[in-house]
Design brief:
Number of helices: 11
Number of strands: 14
Largest sheet: 7 strands, antiparallel
Structural class: alpha/beta
Strand content: 25-35%
Radius of gyration: 27 Å
Order of helices and strands: HEEEEHEEEHHEHEHEEHEHHEEHH
Distance between the termini: 84 Å
Length: 388
C-alpha cells in the first residue's frame, strides 16, 4: 500500500490529478455508495477535491483540502474499494488491489487533458451552502450544519435564483424609509421568507412584508414560523388578490404562480400602487386560449398543444408590453430550468421614465388586434392607458 499512498500524495499535493474514479466494492452493502468520483475544484481561490459518492438513488458531495483528500483516499482504498483509475495530463494510473491487499499500479497513456479549475468552481449563491440559514433549516431545506438536503437542492437553487433577481433591482427600490412589500399568493412562502432574510437581515433594510393567500391553514403555519424566527415585520394574511385593499402605497409586489387572471389582478394592484418593482411568475394562462384567432396562424393554432403554448407566451408578451406602456421597463427572464417546472418565465418590471408611450401603445394594439385578444389587464387598467 505504501507505493499507492506515495502516488496519491504526489498527485493530490502537486495538484496534478484531473479526475479519479474508485469502484469495485470489497463488501457490497445495500445502504452504501457503490462508486466515488473525485475532481479538483477551486473554492475561495484555494484548491479542494470534491468527492462525489454515488448511491443507488442519490449522489452526495464532500469538498476536502488536499490533506483531507489524501486521508480519505487512503481510507477508501484500504477499507472499501479494490479498484481505482487516477488520471493526470501525463499518465493514467490503474490501481488494482487484491483480496489480500496486494497492490498493482499500471501506468497507461493519458486520456485526460489539463483543465482550468475555474470550470469546476463552485457556484456562488446568495445563500451559501455550509452556512446555516435559520429559515432554510426550519423549512427542511438545510440541516443544522448548513448542508442542503439532496431532495431539496432544486428548491435551494430556485430560492437563490430568485434572490439573484432581487439583487439586480436593489438600486430601483426607495431608500431613506422602510420598504413595503406585498407577496400575492404566497403559498408555503419559501420565497417570502427568503426575501425577508435577504433584505432585512443581509442587506439591513427596514421593511414590512405582507404575504397573502387564500389557504387559512397555510397562512397559520407561515405566521407561526415567522414568529419563531423573530421576523417581526413579516406577517401573513388570508385574502384574495382582487379584494385586498389595505394599503395606499407599496414599493414592491411579488406574485408567484397566481393562476390565470389572478396574475393580472396582482399586476393591476401593483401599477395602481405605483410600485417601484414587480416580480411575477405567471401560471395557468387560460384566458387567451379561447380568444386567439388568426387565419395566418392556423397551421399552429389548429393544434391544441401548440395553441396552448402560444397563448401562454402571448399572454406574457401582452402583460410585458402593457406594463411598458404604463411606465415600466420590463424584462422576461428564465426563473429556473425547464426540467424543474414548465412555468419558468418571470416578469420583472422596474418603474422607469415614460418613453414613447404612443409608439409602445401602437405596437401593443397591433399585436392584440392581430391575434384578436381582449386581455383582462387592458380592461382592468383602461383608465391608465391611451384612449386611441
Amino acid at each position: 500500500m505504501e507505493a499507492l499512498l506515495n502516488l496519491t500524495n504526489q498527485l493530490l499535493s502537486g495538484g496534478t490529478l484531473i479526475t479519479a474514479t474508485l469502484s469495485q466494492l470489497r463488501k457490497r452493502e445495500s445502504d452504501t455508495f457503490t462508486k466515488v468520483q473525485i475532481k479538483p475544484v477551486e473554492l475561495k481561490k484555494k484548491l479542494y477535491y470534491q468527492f462525489a459518492y454515488h448511491y443507488s438513488n442519490k449522489v452526495t458531495h464532500d469538498n476536502l483540502t488536499p490533506e483531507e483528500a489524501q486521508e480519505r483516499l487512503s481510507q477508501l482504498f484500504g477499507e472499501t474499494f479494490r479498484q481505482g483509475l487516477l488520471c493526470t495530463a501525463e499518465a493514467d494510473y490503474q490501481v488494482l488491489i487484491s483480496k489480500k491487499f496486494k497492490v498493482s499500479i499500471l501506468t497507461k497513456s493519458p486520456t485526460k487533458s489539463a483543465m482550468n479549475l475555474a470550470h469546476n468552481r463552485k457556484k456562488q449563491y446568495v445563500l451559501e451552502e455550509g452556512e446555516p440559514v435559520p429559515f432554510l433549516v426550519e423549512l427542511g431545506i438545510m440541516n443544522a450544519d448548513g448542508k442542503v438536503l439532496a431532495r431539496k437542492y432544486d428548491k435551494f437553487r430556485q430560492i437563490n435564483r430568485f434572490l439573484e433577481m432581487v439583487q439586480d433591482i436593489l438600486p430601483a427600490l426607495p431608500v431613506g424609509r422602510p420598504l413595503t412589500i406585498v407577496d400575492f399568493g404566497c403559498g408555503k412562502s419559501y420565497l417570502t421568507f427568503a426575501l425577508y432574510h435577504y433584505l432585512a437581515i443581509q442587506q439591513r433594510r427596514p421593511l414590512n412584508i405582507v404575504g397573502l393567500d387564500l389557504k387559512a391553514d397555510v397562512i397559520e403555519v407561515c405566521n407561526t414560523l415567522s414568529q419563531k424566527l423573530g421576523y417581526q415585520n413579516l406577517k401573513f394574511l388570508v385574502g384574495d388578490i382582487a379584494d385586498y385593499d389595505e394599503m395606499e402605497q407599496v414599493d414592491m409586489v411579488v406574485t408567484l404562480h397566481a393562476c390565470d387572471t389572478a396574475t393580472d389582478a396582482a399586476l393591476e394592484k401593483a401599477v395602481r400602487w405605483d410600485a417601484s418593482v414587480i416580480l411575477s411568475v405567471p401560471c395557468c394562462q387560460h384566458e387567451l386560449f379561447g380568444q386567439v384567432n388568426n387565419s395566418v396562424l392556423e397551421p399552429m393554432l389548429s393544434h391544441g398543444i401548440l395553441k396552448e403554448r402560444f397563448a401562454a407566451l402571448a399572454t406574457d408578451g401582452i402583460r410585458a408590453k402593457l406594463l411598458d406602456v404604463m411606465g415600466y421597463k420590463t424584462q422576461l427572464l428564465e426563473f429556473i430550468d425547464m426540467e424543474h417546472t414548465p412555468k419558468n418565465i418571470l416578469i420583472r418590471a422596474v418603474k422607469g421614465s415614460q418613453e414613447d408611450r404612443q409608439r409602445l401603445w401602437e405596437e401593443y394594439t397591433a399585436f392584440r388586434d392581430f391575434i384578436h385578444a381582449d386581455p383582462y389587464l387592458e380592461r382592468a387598467c383602461a383608465d391608465l392607458l391611451p384612449t386611441s
